[in-house]
Amino acid sequence: MLKRVQYPADSWHVDAAQRNEILSRYREHTARFESVAARRDAAVAEVIPFQPPLQELGQEPTAREIEVLQLISDGLVNREIGVRLFLSEETVKSHVRHLLAKLQARSRAHAVAVGFRRGLIN
Hints:
Layout: H1 16-42, H2 63-73, H3 78-85, H4 89-103, H5 108-117
Helix pairs in contact: 2-4, 2-5, 3-4, 4-5
């Protein structure tokens, strides 16, 4: 471990032994890096193709789906949304699935974020 030596100007000074240790560690790291880089270059790296965003479905969420989205943003779970809107839990799940598809969202939280950005909910 490197020791800090305090000098009048409170600056860092490294003695010869510490300097050699730092240089040795640097050389070891460089050698390991070069070794790994050589192995990577030898293997054919798979390139992950860029995938553009999914095409818009061309459908806007229905009024009921927007109601469900608003309740999701209020923190309600499917069962609570069903009770609030007099729907079965399965119907709420269906609305959520449709919302995720129409908003191209990966999760309920993402759907809420998209809904806020698009001005569907407040």
